[in-house]
């Protein structure tokens, strides 16, 4: 019997990403290897500009790469058409960003429903699932608020609810606490940790913040285009 703990969510071999300017190549990622198992929280740390967001965007099929093999949730990301990338994103992964990128003209619950509606979940079901997730992040009483009426910490929690509502296998988070003060940041971190324990998704955590990184099961740093364990 397969132990789900051993299922591989991410397998990256020899990843290269470079920008070509005239005849000069600027390598951002230069032979990077990375493996993440189902249910793991893994950090990606490193100085500004080393390629953390670039790696995350490649894993989320938001950005292309030049060389290597990248397999995420059983899908090889080489040579995918734009349509296939969209399907991959819709089915397998969610993002949590520093700027929570809530849609300003929609209420909190509508923002959380959005990924389900895009996946053709019926409205009533989507609303129920979104409400349940907002309840989990402590915002059951703010479902009808618009983003402009929410604090930074509340917006961040709506962003987390939206990322988790589709119950994806993999969550990609880029500085999820980046805009928040210490208390809100800790609150969000504890919340994400509890939800990860409950739903057992894999989580890639890109961050500068050592405290946030300390919640990872495994920590890594990008240096000279490669990923090294910390
Ligand atoms: N379109 C582009 N053309 C050329 N260089 C680019 C392009 N996009 C990104 N870069 C460069 O790639 C490098 C890695 O950028 P990336 O955003 O991945 O860094 P990061 O590690 O996420 O940094 P931060 O911690 O500041 O968010 C940077 O030096 C950036 O200038
Ligand atoms: Mg970045």
Automatic annotation (TrEMBL):
Keywords: ATP-binding, Lipoprotein, Nucleotide-binding, Transport. The keyword Transport applies. Residues 10-230 form the ABC transporter domain. Transmembrane segments: none annotated. Signal peptide: none annotated. Pfam families: ABC_tran. InterPro entries: AAA+_ATPase (IPR003593), ABC_transporter-like_ATP-bd (IPR003439), ABC_transporter-like_CS (IPR017871), MacB-like_ATP-bd (IPR017911), P-loop_NTPase (IPR027417). SUPFAM superfamilies: P-loop containing nucleoside triphosphate hydrolases. GO terms for molecular function: ATP binding; ATP hydrolysis activity. Belongs to the ABC transporter superfamily. This is Lipoprotein releasing system ATPase LolD. The gene is lolD.
